[in-house]
Write a structure and sequence with these properties.
The protein is mainly α. It has one domain: Up-down Bundle (Four Helix Bundle (Hemerythrin (Met), subunit A)). The chain has 6 helices and no strands. Helix 2 packs antiparallel against helix 5. The protein is globular.
Length: 146
């Protein structure tokens, strides 16, 4: 399967009922959009992609700050610290946009998505296969194009 076919396969959101898979997919999509914008060096595309990523991270922060959040406190604190870094780096990018500045945001999204994909439980026999081997291939493919 070509890189383009593999990426297009992941343009389809995951099945409902698995928040980790959804978060991994959203982070992957944000990284792909930022990478595509970075490669074209299109200012408007870069700003649109980085704002989308920022919205995603705002949602992540909101969920982690919820009193009902089931994420263990130490993990929650680490991801909130990472979200704080994302906020600062995004504001810095918006203030002085340069394509090279997107690399750190792309890398963070890819790495976190890879970890979430790896943590996704194996699908039940009745569900279509969307295993972690494919996710790892996407992560490796997108990492090698950085």
């Amino acid at each position: 399967m070509s890189k383009e076919q593999l990426i297009n396969k992941y343009n389809v959101p995951p099945l409902e009922g698995n928040p980790r898979a959804t978060e991994a997919w959203a982070l992957t999509q944000a990284a792909l959009k930022m990478k595509a914008a970075q490669e074209t060096n299109d200012l408007e595309a870069m700003l649109t992609a980085v704002r989308l990523n920022w919205q995603l991270w705002t949602i992540i922060q909101s969920e982690l700050l919820s009193p009902d959040c089931p994420v263990p406190a130490d993990i929650r604190q680490n991801v909130l610290s990472l979200a704080n870094f994302i906020d600062k780096h995004t504001v810095g990018f918006i203030g002085a946009p340069e394509a090279r500045k997107l690399s750190v945001l792309i890398s963070i999204d890819r790495e976190l998505a890879g970890g979430l994909y790896a943590a996704v439980p194996a699908p039940a026999a009745a569900e279509p296969a969307r295993g972690t081997a494919e996710a790892e291939t996407v992560r490796q493919t997108t990492n090698t194009s950085a």
